[in-house]
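Entry 14. Structure prediction run on the chain below.
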Amino acid sequence: MAHASSSIPYGRKTQTAPALAEVHILWITAGLGCDGDTISITAATQPSIEDIVLGAIPGLPKVHLHNPVLAYENGDEWMAWWHRADRGEIENFILVVEGSIPNERIKAEGYWAAMGVDEKTGQPITTAEWLDRLAPKALAVVGAGTCAAYGGIHAMAGNPTGCMGLADYLGWDWKSKIGIPIVNVPGCPVQPDNFMETLLYLLYQLAGRAPMIPLDQALRPKWLFDRSVHDNCPRAGYYEQANFAREYGSPKCLVKLGCWGPVVQCNVPKRGWMDGIGGCPNVGGICIGCTMPGFPDKFMPFMDPPPGAALSSKLIQPYGRLIRALRRLTNSTLNKEPKWRHKRAELTTGYKAK
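Output returned:
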C-alpha cells in the first residue's frame, strides 16, 4: 500500500519515513513477568487504550492491538498474527515486550519462556527467538515496564535464568528498520498514562506528525523521566526544613524511612497513578526506585535509609532549623492584619485627600 511520505529526523541524519495509514501493535507478554503492565495500562486515561484503538484521536494511523490479555482471539487464531508478522505479511508494526528476556544459551535442555510453536518443527518458539525474528522487522520496539526495560526483579543477583532487558539483549545502540532506538517505559508496573502517552508519541511520529522521540541515556522518554521523585513530591518541602518522618503515617519527608526519591527519575508523585490520584509517596509509601536500571538490587534492603540519606539529612539539619525559625517569624507577622483596619472615627490608612 502506498502512503504519503514525510521528512522525520532519525538520529543525526534526516531520512524519509512513510506517513502510515495503519499500524499493528504486537504485544508479547511471554517474557518473565506478571502481566502487571498490561493490567496497569487498562487504567490509562491520557490517552486510554480505547481512545487509540477506536480512532478517537485525530491524526493517528488506524491501530490494531494484539495483546493476549485483551484479545478476543486465542490459540492458533491468536498466534496467526505473530506468524504473519514473521513471514513479512504485516509490514508496519510496533513490537511491545512485557517481561524480562531469559538467556536461552545457558542450559543444556528445555527453555525458560516461549509462546506458540514453530509451524515447521512443532517445537516451542522461545521469547528470545521471537525477538530475533520480529525486532528487525518492527518499526519500533518498546519495553513495557522495568522487567522488559532492564530485567527487573527476575534479573536479581542469584537468578537462574540469566535474564535481562531489551537493550541488554538487542544492544544499547540498536535501531529499528526506520532508525528508532529501543524505547523503555519502566515502572513496576509501568505508570499507565506514561506508557500510553509514549505509544501516542510513537504513533504520531509514524504518522509524520512528530520528530524523533527524545530519549535519555537509559532509553526512557525524556519528558517523562527527566525529573526526580523528590522534585515533584508533595513532601519535598519538609526535606529542606529537615523535618523527617519517624514512622509511617506521617505527612513529612520519608527519606529516613528508606525513600530513594531524591535520586530516582520518576514522575509518579506529580502525575499520580490514575486520573492524578495515588502514587507511592502521595499515599505514604517510600520510593524504591522501580523505574531505574539498577532496580531492585541497588535499592535493597528497601526499608533501610539510602546510604546518602544519613549524611544529607544530617547536613541539612542546621539549615533546616534556621529556615523553620525564619518562616515561623515571617508567618507570625503575615497572620496579623494591618493595623489600619479598624472602626474608630479616624482614617489611618495613609490616604490623603487632595
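The longest strand covers residues 22-28.
Filed with the rest of this week's runs.
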